[in-house]
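User: New here, any thoughts?
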Amino acid sequence: MSESNRHETAQQRPPAPAVRSWHTTAQQVQGGIDLPVDATFDYDPDDPWAVRVTFRAPLGRVVVWTLSRELLRSGARVLSGAGDVRLWPLRGGGREGRVRMRLGPAGAFAVVDVDRERLRTWLAETYVAVPDGSEAARIDWAAETPHLFGQP
């Protein structure tokens, strides 16, 4: 397949359904006290493996994390992740409980809880838009390849 045919194929793929952002109030756990933090989860079908989570803390501080969609799905079921990002389900606190996220390196991390059932519902929408296993077909590899090798 020629370079132009690959590029045309990527451009001709049908558009995925849009996925609405999920706005929620997360709870930052700090010193045994839960502090409310606005959180927005965004998914772009053209970047199919990633979920961007924007936390808006009191006093205007904004922190954005890019997490794997599969990590979020797994973390809603079992302890998942490594290094700077760990997720695990917490039972209690409602019918389905919460998902705890530990974000950041040792000594400088934040712990944030989100509603487990709502996270799972929102993630299901992302899997309707881009089914599991079809993510690679959403990527325009001809456009991405130069970035993989550090070329402009």
